[in-house]
Amino acid sequence: MLKKIGFPLVILFSITGIILSYMYDQQQIAEIADEATSSIPVEETKPSEEIEDESVVDETVSLGWLGSHIDNDPSLSQKVVFVGSSSFTSTESDHGWPNLVMEETAHAIDTTTIDYEVLTYSGETVSSSLIADTARDITAADPTVLIIESFSLNDNQYYLPFTEQESFDNLSLFLTHMESELPDTEIIVVPSNPFPNALHYLERKNVLDEQASTLPGTYVDHWGAWPTGEGLESVTQNLRPNDEGHEIWSEAFLEFFIDS
């Protein structure tokens, strides 16, 4: 009789022990998991919008040629001086491509104040007289960046006896003089605008393209952005750019200047 009762009791106690042991183990596991979770440090993350805004500002300042120039000395006050012929002013308004460039630049790089000035000499050619007539004005303007037209169009229009090579040599002489007068100034050279049905003028432009690497400063050719044929006739008037022509010129230069 005792054997019959004892055997079921042993089984019951065994099952009860197993259940109690399992419950104890589960409680221990839960406590360990809670301790591990509470010990993990939680990092505070900044809103994604703030991070994006900071990256946009950094990218803007470093854009293009001008951004790299500013990055070299962010504390330096910047002044851009444009020097050119009447091609710097539209035939339809007083607004020219230098103004369009600087308006766009002010929007793109708003962390730095950049002054600018436009000096135009409608009847001047790239001759020794240009040095005497304009060097004093340019030096007085005290630019950190000097953007100068090649004056090829004036050479072609007013003094055709100048050969293509003479025009280039005069330009080189003028730029070398300005480099010596303003040793800390960055110089950028741009060719005069294209116009329809050009003959000798194209030869002057070819000589400039071929030898531009020997000039002081950086040569920025914008002619690839202009239309040809009848399209070129629609954006020029009396050999000079109209409002649409100045838009084309400014957009082409901005690709280099601020990578816009």
UniProtKB/TrEMBL annotation:
Limits of the SGNH hydrolase-type esterase domain: 87-248
Domain of life of the organism encoding this protein: Bacteria
Transmembrane segments: 7-24
Keywords assigned by UniProt, alphabetized: Membrane, Transmembrane, Transmembrane helix
Designated name of the protein: SGNH hydrolase-type esterase domain-containing protein
Originating species: Alkalicoccobacillus plakortidis
Lineage: Bacteria, Bacillati, Bacillota, Bacilli, Bacillales
